[in-house]
Amino acid sequence: MLRLFRSCLKFVLPALLTLGATAALACTGITLRPGDGSVIFARTMEFGTDLQSNVIIIPRGYSFEGTAPGDKPGMRWKSEYGIVGTNAFDEPLVADGLNEKGLHVGVFYFPGFAKYQDVKPEDADRSLAPWELSTYLLGTCSSVDEAVEAANNVLVGEVVMKKMGFVPPLHLIATDATGKSVVFEHVDGNLTTHSNQIGVMTNSPQFDWHLTNLSNYVNLTAQNSEGMDLAGKQIEALGQGSGMLGLPGDFTPPSRFVRAVAYSKAALPVKTAKEGVLQAFHILNQFDIPKGAAMANEKGNEVADYTLWTSAADLTNLRHYFRTYENSQIRMVDLKQVDFDAKDIKTISMRGEEVIPDLSKTAK
Fold first, then answer.
1. Is 2-348 assigned to CATH 3.60.60.10?
2. Where does the record place the Choloylglycine hydrolase/NAAA C-terminal domain (predicted)?
3. pLDDT-derived band at 299, boundaries 50, 70, 90
4. Helix 144-152 vs helix 133-140: crossing angle, to nearest 10
């Protein structure tokens, strides 16, 4: 395991040094299935700087033009389905969102491994920039199967995002209202699609590597250890949680993947979608990164990766929930109440500070 991890670092570390302050290396996603048959996907978004995110509502029929390599015009499409999701840099594109058919797509960082497709000039009209693929899939697909077909019919090229100054290395997870989930990864110039039955997502390395790495933790259980007899001496566990002894607790992608699988699969069953949403936020509390816990030195400046926002999507009841670093109150947008026949994209601000009610005089 150590040898494999060191091999992974040999590829990942140069990418970290290159990306520096703009690196977002700690996003974590999980999937829950409450007893009422609903499907909940929830994730964190970490970054070293403020992404200036807001929730946007993209109406049906909204026109987009993609970007081909060399900042040339790419594929054009219209959004067939309405979308609610979180953007970045005030762009009309979704980093994490849900459409009115219950398809969710989330963008995660994939440094050191993302290598996009070669786009010839004659193929520019069916090409997209890496950060445009999620919005295209949400706008044109109603299920994971349709998303897989659509992703295989477009090209994603090496396009520099001007507001970042480099080609962002990304991979995506798509989940639909049936609970089916896939991961899209561009590696060595080819698109690979991984079936994701466990519904968990983090960052580098490739998704199948993370699945193999789970073999190192088959001993983990939510049940406390019963202790052991050691030469006639009974050795007891020290307190609760002894069944999870050895669970990695750091913020690296492999450790978060293992931890996300352990917590999401050990979570006690809940009955309703609302309970599932709340449970998802509680689980993701374990992945919340406060400023200062994950630091990098970028040209003499200390940069802190931190959890900008956490979101949850109820794919069954079509609701988008979120909270932010500045305000931990959970807020919600109901897709069934928004106007998807509007002419333009509408914005819901995610800004605002924490409100702490003073209950001093409410005692009875």
1. yes
2. 27-347
3. confident
4. 130
Question: What are the CA-CA distances from residue 239 to residues 232, 329, 335 (Å)?
Answer: 21, 32, 45
Distance CA 80, CA 276 (A): 29
Region 148-170: mean pLDDT is: 96
- The pLDDT score that the predictor gives to residue 237 is 86
| φ, ψ for residue 348, nearest 5 deg | -115, 120
Residue 274 contacts residue 316 (beta carbons within 8 Å): no
Query: Is 14's pLDDT higher than 80?
Result: no
Is the pLDDT at 3 greater than 60, yes or no?
A: no
> What are the sequence ranges of the domains in the chain?
2-348
* Rounded Cα gap, residues 259 and 267, in angstroms: 12
Select from 335, 332, 348, 345 the least CA-distant residue to 98: 335
Rounded to an integer, the average pLDDT of 207-230 is 94
Q: Which of 145, 149, 131, 135 is nearest to 191 (CA)?
A: 149
SS (H, E, C) 307-364: EEEEEEEECCCCEEEEEECCCCCCEEEEHHHCCCCCCCCEEECCCCCCCCCCCCCCCC
Measured from the Cβ of residue 142, the count of other Cβ atoms closer than 10 Å reads 17
For 237, residues 6+ apart whose C-beta sits below 8 A from its C-beta are 224, 225, 227, 245
**Tell me, what's the pLDDT at 301?**
84
How far apart, in whole angstroms, are the C-alpha atoms of residue 170 and residue 157?
12
**pLDDT of 209 strictly over 80:** yes
- Cis previous bond, 205, omega within 30: yes
Going across the sheet that includes 319-324, the strands are 29-32, 40-47, 306-314, 319-324, 331-334
Tally of CA atoms within 13 A in the half-sphere of 282 that contains its CB: 13
**Of 27, 105, 141, 258, which residue is the catalytic one?**
27
